[in-house]
Amino acid sequence: MYCILDIETTGGQFNEEGITEIAIYKFDGHEVVDQFISLVNPEKPIQPFVVKLTGINNAMLRSAPKFYEVAKRIIEITEGCVIVAHNASFDYRILKTEFRRLGYDFKKQTLCTVELAKKLIPEQESYSLGKLVRALGIPMADRHRASGDAMATVKLFKMLMAKDVEKEIVKSFIKTEIKSGISPKLLDIVESLPSKTGIYYIHNEKGDLIYIGKSKNIKKRVNQHFTGTSSKSKKIQRDVYAVTFEETGSELISLLKESEEIKINKPIYNRAQRKSIFQYALYMHKNEEGYLALSVEKADGRKKEITSFTTLQEGRNALFKITEKHNLCQKINGLYVTKNDCFQHKIKECNGACIGEETPESYNERVKEFIEETSFENNNMVIIDRGRTFDERSAVLIENGIYKGYCFYELNYQVSNIEILKNIIIPMQNNRDVKTIIQSYLRKNKVYKVIHF
Fold it and tell me: pTM score, two decimals?
C-alpha cells in the first residue's frame, strides 16, 4: 500500500512551520481505498504570501482540529504504507516534526514523485506539480490546496508506475513487505488478485521477478500456476513469495507489455519468451509467371517479412484466410498442389490466375492492397481500445511506421493533441515481435477505433 499525501503549511522558518491542511489518499497500486482530508489549526499565524497562494486564512482554521486531534487517524491510515509525495522530503519532514512535538517517532519509507518523474519522464521543462501535470494532460482542481494537489499526485504516480517497465517501484515495495516477515500462503495470494485482464508479476523472497505473464483473467491464470503439475509450475510454487499485477483493460496492451517486460527483466522462468516467439514468417516473391506469391517459411532475418507467426500451422491458417478474403489463388500461394486450376477456381472464388485467365497486373494489385492494409510502413496512427475503467481508454501510438508505446487516458484532448500524447506515452521498443502482435490483434479483434494523423 502507498499513502499519497500533500501538506499545506503556515510558511515561516525551517522546522517552525505548522500544518494548515493535510490530504492523504491510501492507494493500493490500482485505486484509492481510503482517504483522510482535513484542515488543521496550526496554533500560529499563516504567512501573508501563503494566504494568497492557498486561499487558507487564519479565520478558516480557528475551529479546525489541532494536529494532536488528527494524529491518531494519520497513524492509522499510513500503517504499513510507503509515503508518496511530490517533493516527499518536505512533506515527510513536516509530518515528522509535528509528531516529534507530540513525543512520537514517525518513521516511514518514502517515494518522491519529482525524482521518479525525472527518471521516467526525462526532458520536461519543469517538474513542479502544476506544470508537470499540465504537460501530461492530467486534470487538476484546487491547485495549492492539499486535496487537489494530492489527487493530482495520485494520477501522476499511477502514470509513473505504468512507465516503470523495470518495476523498480513495485520491487522496492515488495522488499518493504518482506521486512515485515509475513510469508503469505498461495491461497491468500490468489484471493487478493482480480478476475480482470492484465499482467501479473511473480516475485521470490528477495523481491526479484521470477515470472511475468498476461491473462484475460489474472486470478484464474495464477491459480493454474499454483495448482499445475508441470516442472515450471512446481518451481513457481516453490519460489513464489508475492504476486503483483497491473490491470490493462485492453488485451492488446497486455500482449505488448508482456513481450517488452520479459525482454527487459529476463525472469528466470520466462526463458522461452526472452527471444522472439515468432519463428515463422509470411514472405512475398514474384513467381516465373510474374504473379506475386505469398508463402509461410521459417523466419529469416535477411528477408523482408510481411508478418510473423508462432507456429507453421498458425501461419498456414492465416494464409488460407488472407487468400480467401482478398480473392487470391491457393495454388500460387502454395496451399493447393495441382497441375490444373486450384480448388477456389472450381467454386468461382479465384479469378483464374492459376491457369493464366487473370493477368499478373490485375492479380498483383490485390496482393499489394493486402500488404498495404497489413503494413505500418510510413503510417502515423493511434489505436484506441478499452481502458482499465469504464471512463478510461487505452491508446497505442505508431509514428512513421514505428511503434512508440502506449498510454491510458480519460480526456479526448490528451489523445487529439499529439504533443500531450507523446508526453503521456509509455515508451516501448520497436521490434518484429511488437509489429506482429499489433498486426495479429487487429486481424483477429475489433478495437474502438484507429485514428490516422
Answer: 0.68
